Amino acid sequence: MDSSHRRAALGLGLAGIATFAGSSARAAEAGSTWERIRSSGELRIGVTSGEPWFFKDAATGAWGGIGHAAGKQVAADLGVKLVTVETTWGNAVAALQAGQFDVMFVLDATPQRGLAVDFPIQPFFYYAQGVLVQDDLPVKTWADLDKPGITIGVTLGTAPDRDLTARMKQAKIERFPTNDQSILAFQSRHVQAVSLYHPALVMQRKRVAMGRVVLPEPVRMSTTSAGVRREADKTWRDFLGLALDYYYVTGMTQQFYEDFLRARDIDPATAPAVMKEMWGRT
Which of 20, 60, 196, 274 is the most exposed place for a label (fewest CB within 10 A)? Predict the structure, then answer.
């Protein structure tokens, strides 16, 4: 992003945040999430295990990850205390509906979830279906993988599984019950590549210390979001969307990601970004 666009984004973001902060006393619905956050002085975020989204240090009990970093920044912008509430991915929507926490970051805005909870219009960040490939396998496009003699591992029933099934006509696809089993097959060289969404692959590459992460062309892109409780007063949802957009266009979201990678001893230069505008630069 050039400096003029960055300055414009900063100005719009700061102006928007000031407008929302000034509207706190005028929230439309008594008992809304926005009123609860402002009156209690606390922002409650759902957290669960799953790097690089959320990570709990076993020694200190402290949370990290890109989702936690976003929550920490939102709390700072609101001038409130951040409170973490442990949940699971499977229970996150029900917990939002029950008011157990105020937001769950890195929750994809699927049509099914959209029937139960709300999401900002603005995405949190972007990720892509990638592959962890053996170092001696040259890959730039999906066609480079779709060849006889190449075996690709994937986790059964996932979106990457469905995509590979439709895309691959000549390569062999081996399906495994879990991500860990897919990566074990790669580590043992039973498969030449494993396909998952790229931030998860970055963490797996760190664990097995082999291979490289590639986003084959054409890139299959997806977005993630932040789920909130559905309610008549949309102030909290709309503020959150403004904040997420501001963090993204000013590069803060990418910084959240890179800071976590460094904390886990991963060089960000070796990992595809979570800003789609930066893909192809690594």
Answer: 60
Q: Nearest CA to 91 among 78, 81, 100, 82?
A: 100
Query: What's the pLDDT at 26?
Result: 44
Q: Is 230 exposed, middle or buried (0-12, 13-18, 19+ CB in 10 A)?
A: middle
Domain range for 157: 128-214
Q: What is the mean pLDDT of residues 182-189?
A: 95
pTM over 0.85: no
Sheet strands (E) in the chain: 42-47, 55-56, 63-64, 81-86, 104-107, 125-133, 151-155, 172-176, 193-197, 212-214, 221-227
The number of domains in the chain is 2
- Do 80 and 11 share a structural domain? yes
| CATH assignment at residue 122 | 3.40.190.10
| E strands, 171-214, in order | 172-176, 193-197, 212-214
Final residue belonging to a domain, choices 175, 190, 214? 214
| Beta-ladder partners of 280 | none
One domain for residues 152 and 233: no
What residues contact residue 278 under an 8 Å CB cut-off, 6+ apart? Answer: 254, 272
In angstroms, the CA 218 to CA 234 distance is: 37
DSSP 58: T
Q: Are residues 245 and 173 in the same domain?
A: no
At a CB cut-off of 8 Å and minimum separation 6, what does 39 contact?
A: none
Cβ distance 131 to 152 under 8 Å? yes
Q: Are residues 18 and 92 in the same domain?
A: yes
Report pLDDT digits (tens) over 80-89.
Answer: 999 999 999 8
The span from the first CA to the last CA of the chain, in angstroms, equals 16
